[in-house]
Amino acid sequence: MEERADAARLLRGFERRFLAARALRSFPWQSLEEKLRDSSGSELLLDILQKTVKHPLCVKHPPSMKYSRSFLSELIRKHEAVHTEPLDELYQALAEVLTAEDPTHCHRSYLLPSGDSVTLCESTAIVSHGTTGLVTWNAALYLAEWAVENPAVFAHRMVLELGSGAGLTGLAICKTCRPRAYVFSDCHSHVLEQLRGNVLLNGFLLEPSIDAWAQHPGPHTPEAERPWVTVARLDWDTVTAPQLAAFQPDIVLAADVLYCPETVLSLVGVLRKLSTCRKDQRAPDAYVAFTIRNPETCQLFTTELGQAGIPWEEVPRHDQKLFPYEEHSEMAILKLTL
């Protein structure tokens, strides 16, 4: 019984990491080697194949071919180190990806506790078209995990996300937290184009603008499963307080946007404008998630918040780990009272 549970955990580890195209070094290779040494059969490797390269999500929305080739090569190496008989299915899978073309975009998928998933089309380059917004960063995963564990924060609320990037956080919230409406926003044209594609890829309808909803928000009934969703171009340096007020946000989110002093100052500027957006006599609450890369940048953010008169508190850390991300990243979420 315990052995079966161990195998299930191992399979789950491979599945989650492969679907999200995480670094191969993060996979539980050592556990696999131990299992292979203790087992004469090849069932486990065939199960891993079905949970990774042959997974229905990967067949429909494939990861990078280069990534699949590297993964299968490593899997074959692990098999050959223990078993002398070649496993035809592994070589056949490798032959298929060796002959496939590698496009400029690939897919990553993240499994949700509900059994649903979020699939993103991302650029294969980390910095592409002069922006970092075309890939998913760790703090977006961390914030999405916290949101999934705290759906009441978002239920039946209007959410405005700043710097949505590839869209992971918002799509996870839209699929699990039942917001009334969700506005994804960014300022880079290539990011916005990809963001719209990811919203549609995950089965949501895109409203053309905020205006129709703002004029006729209507009652949100429990039967209305899908939130109202739009993607907006929002430049933090030029947007005005009235333009922000038009979104009527209850909740404001931002993840992994504190990567240099310039963006910190721009973010605090837009948060200051949002603090004037009163809805039913109260300003929206804001949650900002970030990876602590440079403590000085984080210090600058909290100092600037203080100077802007925006109180903040750190949200208690969570150990949820629904999604695979870099193990050694230190992350935090601040709740701001605008």
Can you walk me through this structure?
The protein folds into 2 domains: 1-104; 108-337, Vaccinia Virus protein VP39 (Rossmann fold), CATH 3.40.50. Helices cover 42% and strands 16% of the residues. It contains 13 helices and 9 strands. The strands form 2 sheets. Strands 5-4-3-6-7-9-8 form a 7-stranded mixed β-sheet, sandwiched between helices. It has a two-stranded antiparallel sheet with strand order 1-2. α8 links the parallel β3 and β4. The termini are far apart.
- Derived from helix and strand composition plus strand pairing, the structural class reads alpha/beta
CATH homologous superfamily annotation of the largest domain: Vaccinia Virus protein VP39
Determine the number of helices (DSSP H or I, runs of at least 4 residues).
13
CATH class term of the largest domain: Alpha Beta
- Number of folding domains? 2
Q: Order the strands across the largest sheet as they lie in space.
A: 5-4-3-6-7-9-8
Strand content: 15-25%
Largest sheet descriptor: 7 strands, mixed
Rounded mean pLDDT score: 88
Q: Helicity range of the residues?
A: 40-55%
In terms of per-residue confidence, which ranges show pLDDT below 50 for 5 or more consecutive residues? 126-134
- Please tally the β strands and state the result: 9
Instruction: Indicate the CATH topology of the largest domain.
Output: Rossmann fold
CATH architecture of the largest domain: 3-Layer(aba) Sandwich
User: Radius of gyration, rounded?
Assistant: 22 Å
* Dominant shape: elongated
Protein name: FAM86 N-terminal domain-containing protein
Organism: Bos mutus (wild yak)
Domain FAM86 N-terminal: 9-97
Pfam families: FAM86, Methyltransf_16
